[in-house]
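Section 3.1 - Work completed
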Amino acid sequence: MAVVVFKIIWYVYDTQKNSRIFLTVTSPSGDISENKISPTTTGYFESFHYLDKYAEVGTYKATAVYKDEIIGTQLFDLVDD
């Protein structure tokens, strides 16, 4: 079984120096992984999240917060193939 990697991409339009995006990824059982990401000067940011062969099957949720406001949410499903 291989490692699963997913890439999260978003843009923010109001970029300020030292403003960071707070990204959380929540597993199907509620475990939370937290990351702080700095956007580029164009507002682009991305994050890679790795799931190993022991990762839970089910729906994961990624949420990005910028300046205390949710700017995006993505859901994705990990299925047992």
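Second construct:
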Amino acid sequence: KPLAGLFIDFHADDAHQIYFLSMWLLCIRTISMFFDGTSQILTGALRGLYDTKFPMVIDVIANWALMVPFAALFAFGFSWGVIGLSCGAGLTRLVNMVALILRWRMKTRLLVL
């Protein structure tokens, strides 16, 4: 609440609705940042194994072919608005992270054999 108080006048009529919305957006973004950070670490690790094309292709596919439809579906299809946009972006980052984890596991198994 102190952080939101820097940007929200709590004496205004809509202040509590804005505060509620901003708290949901911050929670969704926090979870999404975990997925995004893990994806960035895995991209760097794969780069160390000279695997640079796969992470790039996965990022392009995730950001254009998945994020836009997911965000549109959640925001407009389910009428979730801006929370739906954030959920669509977070889901896309989760898919990206899982794809990179699977690629990392496949590449490291080949190193052991």
